[in-house]
């Protein structure tokens, strides 16, 4: 009952003309940025982070809620209509969604995606409302060793899952941890890797890192590829914007199954929605293959409904894990954590006590944002696709100018412009050589926490390394992590053997 009462107070905070305007603006901008290939919700939050500094924290985070879920739907629009998903989380839904578009059912695919976003996000938000406070109370049992174990769990789990190889993922993580070391050591007061420049004593601003790595890195990558491949063809969305009774009957179970698959993945650090979306797609395909007349491969609506619901459910519960535990389980959550830090807030169990008005307003804005997005996207999704016709060189030039102005406006330091360019070149090099970006963000965000908790554990235990695994919680986390990595290695080894066998058979 306390949760419902607090949520009611949150709705009263959000349902004011100004805050409703921020929800609408966030949903609008999030969808607009998400439509653009290569950008997505994490990029939208990173780009808009500097813009919101003039807002009060509640207004800023209400806007971020709209940006987060709007970006997810925008990812799907470009995937369905152009076969170029705005982000990797939309790839699974694009497989059948683009087939539907090619067969003249683009509007139905977009409608299935919009409703899936609403169903998955709403169910996940309900679970966050009722269980995030309980998670926060559970988190009060965590000491330095447990928080260190949680950080290590996030480091290794995300690095292992998001890249094609664990080695590349760990390399990206090492880059993030190295960037996090720049600045003054909080415990000893010594400067580290600052080259004697006072501007770096506070470290590299997280906004500089996120904008450089995500926005500028993508811009340079697109510029380097220009002229090497043909532009994708945009399919016009025509016809009815609603689902027939038969299509709704096919999509409804897929929405519910996708939501059920996506919910737990938001709490575990697996690097985003790629795993649950593909798991949902595989589930729907297997179930459809048991019945005659399967449309998979020709444009099955279940192949859009399931993955889209899974992706949004994962994003919703990821916000619960961030608020209750301070644990970012995806790149978008890591950028949101950076936003909290910019306002002097630390997500975790104490956030519900120290900033309860903000937390419950943010949770209430999830529900309002879902309704706003449904109203915006069901009738107007084809209009969003017009953004795909903007010439790439104009579009990405505008993004670069916007990013640079935002960075300079936040700090008024020329050094930050140099750093954002350098980090953008780093992001380009990582994309060029297949290094995943998400582990860098996780390393930058959680690196200082892991270092501090490790040193606290060692100080309290007088240097006894067994203190790191002496508690049941930390020991369990390490065991689960070891089993998960071992299972992943076995699975990848089997896949590699199967591919080699297929090549030998073909030869």
Automatic annotation (TrEMBL):
DUF112 domain residues: 20-441
Transmembrane segments: 21-49, 55-73, 109-132, 138-158, 165-184, 204-224, 250-271, 318-340, 360-381, 393-426, 433-450, 470-490
Residue ranges of coiled coil: none
Domain of life: Bacteria
UniProt keyword annotations, A-Z: Membrane, Transmembrane, Transmembrane helix
PANTHER family, per the entry: TRICARBOXYLIC TRANSPORT PROTEIN
Protein name: Tripartite tricarboxylate transporter permease TctA
Lineage of origin: Bacteria, Bacillati, Actinomycetota, Actinomycetes, Kitasatosporales
